[in-house]
């Protein structure tokens, strides 16, 4: 009930103040910080049944904010709230939603209101969901032995130069980091 009330309050605030582009984003920040918490609530270990409704709720909140206020940078809402804009889109259940907001994310990254790497992640996800090859190698799979691998990658010989242009680690280090994280999770 409280969550629904917070959501209705946010809709009211955005509807009332959306045209004024108010500089006080504290309620938006708090809402987005909760989106970030909810985004990770049932991901480790993954429980799709519990996480899916949260993801659907999060994307409604985030798209309403973006549609009303644009992509808010860290300077306005802080790191966690800014990150919440991205993760909600990255975990959206509809390709159409990702495709609609990808240009907004790209523009925000160009204006330093989002990280270039975030744009790379969403670009790769959209490419794979459209049965095309990924560009930056951000989307990985896990083998039965628990190690990560990247597949469906265009021009793999030049992936690190593309990754560098998006402020991403070289792919070898990225895979190493995933493997280290997976090993730490398995040893708990």
Work out the number of β strands: 2
Count the helices. How many?
9
* Tally of distinct domains: 2
Q: How are the strands of the biggest sheet laid out side by side?
A: 1-2
The residue fraction in helices comes out at 55-70%
Give me the Rg, rounded. Answer: 18 Å
Q: What series of H and E elements makes up the topology?
A: HHHHHHHEEHH
First-residue to last-residue Cα separation: 35 Å
Largest sheet: 2 strands, antiparallel
| Uncertain regions spanning at least 5 consecutive residues | none
Strand-residue proportion: under 5%
What does this structure look like?
It is built from nine helices and two strands; from the N terminus they run H-H-H-H-H-H-H-E-E-H-H. It has helices at 2-17, 26-40, 48-69, 74-77, 79-90, 95-110, 116-129, 159-165, 171-186; strands at residues 140-142, 148-150. Strands 1-2 form a two-stranded antiparallel ribbon. The mean pLDDT is 90.
Can you give me a brief rundown of this structure?
This protein has 188 residues and is mainly α. The chain is 65% helix and 3% strand. A hairpin with a 5-residue loop joins strand 1 (140-142) and strand 2.
């Amino acid at each position: 009930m409280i969550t629904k009330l917070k959501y209705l309050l946010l809709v009211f605030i955005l509807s009332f103040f959306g045209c004024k582009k108010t500089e006080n984003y504290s309620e938006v920040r708090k809402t987005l910080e909760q989106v970030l918490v909810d985004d990770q609530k049932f991901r480790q270990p993954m429980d799709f049944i519990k996480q899916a409704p949260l993801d659907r709720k999060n994307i409604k909140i985030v798209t309403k904010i973006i549609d009303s206020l644009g992509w808010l940078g860290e300077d306005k809402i802080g790191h966690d709230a800014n990150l919440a804009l991205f993760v909600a889109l990255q975990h959206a259940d509809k390709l159409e939603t990702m495709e609609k907001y990808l240009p907004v994310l790209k523009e925000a990254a160009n204006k330093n209101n989002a990280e270039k790497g975030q744009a790379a992640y969403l670009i790769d996800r959209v490419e794979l969901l459209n049965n095309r090859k990924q560009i930056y190698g951000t989307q990985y799979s896990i083998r039965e032995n628990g190690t990560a691998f990247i597949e469906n990658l265009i021009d793999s010989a030049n992936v690190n130069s593309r990754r560098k242009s998006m402020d991403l680690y070289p792919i070898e280090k990225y895979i190493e980091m995933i493997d280290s994280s997976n090993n730490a999770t398995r040893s708990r």
